[in-house]
Amino acid sequence: MSEPTDPSRNPWTRRSRHTVYENRWIEVVHDEVVRPDGTDGVYGVVRFRDRAVGVVPVAVDGRILLVGQFRYTLDEYSWEIPEGGVPPEEDPLAGAKRELVEETGFTAGTWRVLVPRFSLSNSVGDQTGSIYVATELEPGPAAPEPTEEIALRWVTLAEGLAMIDAGEIDDSVTQVGLLRYAKGP
User: Fold this and answer.
1) Residue-wise pLDDT tens digits, 99-146
2) How buried is 167 (Cβ within 10 angstroms: 0-12 exposed, 13-18 middle, 19+ buried)?
3) What are phi and psi for residue 184, nearest 5 degrees?
């Protein structure tokens, strides 16, 4: 494979688009397209209304706070960094701060961007996100959403990375956050 001659050129042609399903969080569209090879085809796209944010909350001793919850879509329990959706009109950092408090009760004195932008599943969805590191943590009351029954678990970075290796953490936002945090500043 060679480098594209013009990476900004879109080799796809959309002939039509119609919504097949929508709710407060997503819109699913069906596109009739001409593929890059010139043949006709279809493409289904999940369009997300919110941007994703994740938080790597780090205590003074270096441990990282994970949240655990049952994920309806996977029909299984999941250990993750605190994360959620941010509406387009909300600043991503403000959304990250809100998610940390909602899910864990913690606030943070210091915030920094860890991953400014990533795509969650760019072959079927358009959702992008950002991940932050939160330090100088102060405990307080959590206020989870009605869809959340959350447990808290402190882990060392090594334990978190081992959980990824063992398949105990398979959430992509958490994997990106912990792996990028392990790389250092």
Assistant:
1) 999 999 999 999 999 999 999 999 999 999 999 999 999 999 998 888
2) exposed
3) 95, 180
Distance of CA 56 to the CA centre of its chain: 12
Q: Give CA torsion, residues 78, 82, 86, 90, to 10 deg.
A: 170
Beta strands in the chain (DSSP E): 13-22, 26-34, 40-48, 51-57, 64-71, 76-80, 83-86, 107-119, 128-138, 151-155
The pLDDT confidence band at residue 7, using thresholds 50, 70 and 90, is: confident
68, 111, 166 from 162: Cα distances, Å: 16, 25, 6
Q: Give the pTM.
A: 0.92
Both tokens of residue 177?
């956050």
| Residue 73 CB neighbours (<10 A) | 6
Instruction: For residue 144, give the nearest of 70, 48, 50 by alpha carbon.
Output: 70
- Give the model's confidence band at 1: pLDDT under 50 very low, under 70 low, under 90 confident, else very high: low
User: Hey, what's the torsion of the CAs at 103, 72, 79, 120, to 10 degrees?
Assistant: -90
Instruction: Please give the single-letter amino acid code of residue 124.
Output: V
Whole-number mean pLDDT of the chain? 95
Nearest CA to 121 out of 44, 180, 37 is that of 44
